[in-house]
Amino acid sequence: MLGLTINQIALIDAKKQEFSVKECISRVAYKMGLHDILGTCREKEYVTARIIAIYLIRKNTRMNLKEIGHVFNRDHSTIIYNLRQYDALTQTKDKYFMDCLNRVG
User: Fold this and answer.
1) Model pTM?
2) The domain that contains 49 carries what CATH number?
């Protein structure tokens, strides 16, 4: 089961006016559905997109780790891990990761 519905995400967005959670996720969801990004699939394309979406939400909203975890139906420690993965992938310049970042803009 997914963490939140689109309507619940919209309510969070209304509270956290700076940047839209839905916008962060949809910018990353290139040729993927919302359920793919929020899901549990461990394929590289979904995991990479999820890591970038989590980073964008953390960077562009006032949401804390627990709230971000709730959106993705994950624990806050998983969100911390994903943020560290983002940093590691940035350092290694992983080709697929860099391609995803370029699509986000």
Assistant:
1) 0.81
2) 1.10.1750.10
